[in-house]
């Protein structure tokens, strides 16, 4: 009977997984793939997938997609970028695939998410302007002679 090989300890693999996730975080907008990441780190795609999955619970490709979707959400929250431009900016090549992945991860389409973020920014702007207006009226009313008691 052949003795089973000792399994690698996940704690020894965490630094590799951390470096891989940092690499994805820095390069998600570029055309990276599992094969590209494996070549960059000098390991086989299978080994990297196994290492990252065991350490994080998700394969590398899922991390790349998740990071791209988070970046797209941030773009929609902070800018008025259109869906096709956001798709390209975060590293997706195909708008249909981007939309499917966005719905899968965010629970709504990128267009609806973008509209919701635009509406929220507009509401915040209206609130800020209302506060400025109230503050301005208060300052005017505090000027000597602005309001006289009768």
Description:
With 150 residues, the chain is mostly helical. The protein has one domain: Homeodomain-like (Arc Repressor Mutant, subunit A), CATH 1.10.10.60. The protein is 72% helix and 0% strand. It has seven helices and no strands. The chain has helices spanning 10-27, 34-41, 45-56, 60-78, 83-89, 95-106, 110-141. Helix 1 (10-27) crosses helix 3. The chain is elongated, with a radius of gyration of 25 Å. It starts with 9 loop residues before the first helix and ends in a 9-residue tail after the last helix.
Q: Indicate how many domains the architecture comprises.
A: 1
Give the CATH topology: Arc Repressor Mutant, subunit A
- Briefly, what CATH class? Mainly Alpha
The first-to-last residue Cα distance is 105 Å
The CATH architecture designation is Orthogonal Bundle
Alpha plus pi helix count:
7
Shape: elongated
On the 0 to 100 scale, the average pLDDT is 85
Radius of gyration: 25 Å
The helix/strand order is HHHHHHH
**Strands, count:** 0
Task: Let me know the largest β-sheet.
Answer: none
List unreliable stretches of 5+ residues: none
CATH superfamily: Homeodomain-like
List the helices and strands and how they pair.
Elements: H1 10-27, H2 34-41, H3 45-56, H4 60-78, H5 83-89, H6 95-106, H7 110-141
Helix pairs in contact: 1-3, 1-4, 2-3, 4-6, 4-7
């Amino acid at each position: 009977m052949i003795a089973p090989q000792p399994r690698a300890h996940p704690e020894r693999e965490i630094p590799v997984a951390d470096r891989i996730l940092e690499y994805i975080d820095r390069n998600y907008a570029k055309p990276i793939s599992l094969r590209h990441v494996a070549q960059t780190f000098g390991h086989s795609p299978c080994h990297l997938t196994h290492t990252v999955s065991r350490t994080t619970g998700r394969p590398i490709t899922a991390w790349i997609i998740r990071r791209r979707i988070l970046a797209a959400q941030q773009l929609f929250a902070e800018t008025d970028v259109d869906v096709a431009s956001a798709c390209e900016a975060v590293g997706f090549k195909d708008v249909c695939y981007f939309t499917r992945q966005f719905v899968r991860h965010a629970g709504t389409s990128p267009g609806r998410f973008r509209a919701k973020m635009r509406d929220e920014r507009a509401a915040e702007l209206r609130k800020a302007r209302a506060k400025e207006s109230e503050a301005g009226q208060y300052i005017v009313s505090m000027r000597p002679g602005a309001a006289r008691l009768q």
